[in-house]
Every structure is written in structure tokens, then in C-alpha cells.
Amino acid sequence: MAILIAATALLSSPWQSSASLAAPVPAPIDPHEARVELGRRLFFDPLLSGDRTVSCASCHKPEHAFADTVAVSPGVSGRLGTRNTPTVMNTSGRTSMFWDGRAETLEDQAVFPIENPLEMDLPLDEALRRLNSDPGYAEAFRVAYAGPATARTLGRALAAFQKTLDTTDSPYDRYAHGDDAAIDESAKRGRLVFIGKGKCAECHSGEDFTSDRFRNIGLFNRVALGDRGRGAITGDPADDGQFKVPSLRNVAVTAPYMHNGMFATLRQVIEYYNNPDKVVPDAHGRDASITGPLQLSAAEVDDLESFLVALTDDRFAAAADTAVRR
Length: 326
Fold this sequence. Notes:
Radius of gyration: 25 Å
């Protein structure tokens, strides 16, 4: 009798039943993939704005390398921001986020726009309440971070998605890896202007063509151009007019340019550096060592523009062609 009872107990255990032997074992969920997918959902969801009309993607448009096409982007109720929307591509490994560097990491940066009254205008506490009261998001945060949404995990999820937005397959990348035909002769000459006479590489260096430093290129005069930039964060007047050096990857599709979006085309940017006094004659604190006048010839301007266009991933080729033709 004891033997019969033991045998019956063994056969009735869950892992020995015929049903459990036939059922597939669920694959374990990859926490990283869960976090990236959660961040992607959050990035495109207007739930994180006060009136539920604005998402991160409203300003960071995927077809324009996650930048915008206007000088300053409209937020909730059409309120205009004060600075140009930078791309969020190729931001993994970047430091000092925003034009003025007020956030140290991508994770810190991710939650700033949610509370900004000119952008999404939603108190962070309310954003978290909305997420945790939504069954889908509550479960997604549980799977990704083993708990409810918090300010920390919200920032980490958004950053996890943004860190996947890297591009390293532009025509120039292929040229740099040995494909001599990947860029034309004009772009090759433009590369020499970029690293030489144009002085571009003094700031736009490295794999992502940025030094991650802050420079005053002359777009500050304390009057019409009164944005202090880095100086407003550090409180040091010597930093007034300094803004973070942006990456030049995909630059052909991220117009308009500069922290205030004042230049509509790449050619206007190059022409500014070629003769900055013509555009802003009363600039305050401009670093003359990097802003010219460069005295580039018309041919050199053409070649430099060709090189800059070659830094743009082929996935954005159609948008790049439209931008250059404006």
C-alpha cells in the first residue's frame, strides 16, 4: 500500500504529468530587450504629456534622424520651446546632455522634457501615476525592472531605447573602411577642408564627430541673441554663449541648425563660419580660433557641404536630398 501511494504521488506531481511534458517551456524574457521595448513604447506615447497630445517623437521625428524640422518645436497647447530640438541618435556614451549640459547622463536627460512646461508639461508624479495605473505599462515595468514605474526606471527605459538609435553606415563610414567609391571626389576634397582649412575637426572629432565640449561660436550678443547657454548653468560669465558641440552624424536631415535653429541649410552654416562678422557683428565672447573668417573659396564650400552630406546614413537619403536642395 505504501508503495502504491508513493507511486501515485510521483505521477501527480506537476513536472511529471503528461500535460506538463507536452507543454513548451516559455523562453526566459531578456531584461534588456524588455527595457528597450518599454522605452520604445514610452517614446511614442503622448500619455506622458499633460494634455496627452505630445510624445517624445512629436519633436524627435524618426524620418529626420530623430530631430525636428523647425527652429523650435511646439509643445502642449502649441507652446514654443526656446531651443532647437537636437537628434537623439548616436547618444549612447555621450555626456552632458542638452545644449547647455544641464543633465549629466542620457537617463537623467530623458525625464526633463516631461515636466518642462513648454514641452510636455506633466508633473513627474502624475506621469508615474498614469503609468502605474495602466495595466499594460504596470506589467511592462514589472517585467523590465521588477517593480512599478519610478522616476529612475522611467528614465532608464527611455534611455535604453535611445541607446539603440546608433548609425555607423553612412557613405563616409564605408569609405573609411576601405570602399573608395563610397563617396565622390567632391566629398573627398571636402574631408580635407573639414580637417584642415575649415577647422571643423577641432570641435567635431571622434566617431560621432563631436568633442562633447562647449564652445562659443559667436551666436550670443546679450541682446537679440541673449541665450547664455552653458553660462546659465554654471553661473560663470566666461561660459556665456557656449553651447554643446553637436554630433554631425546624419546632419543632412537635421536642419535647421544651431542651438536656436537660425540657419536653414548646411550652406548657410558654412557661410556663417566663412564670415561670421557679416551675420553677427556684435558677438560677445566668440572663440575666434575656430570661427574664422575661414576664407573658403566657392569650390571649397561646395566640397565641404558634400562631405557633410556623406555623414548621413543611407536610410535618410531621400530626406537628405530634399534638405540639400532647399
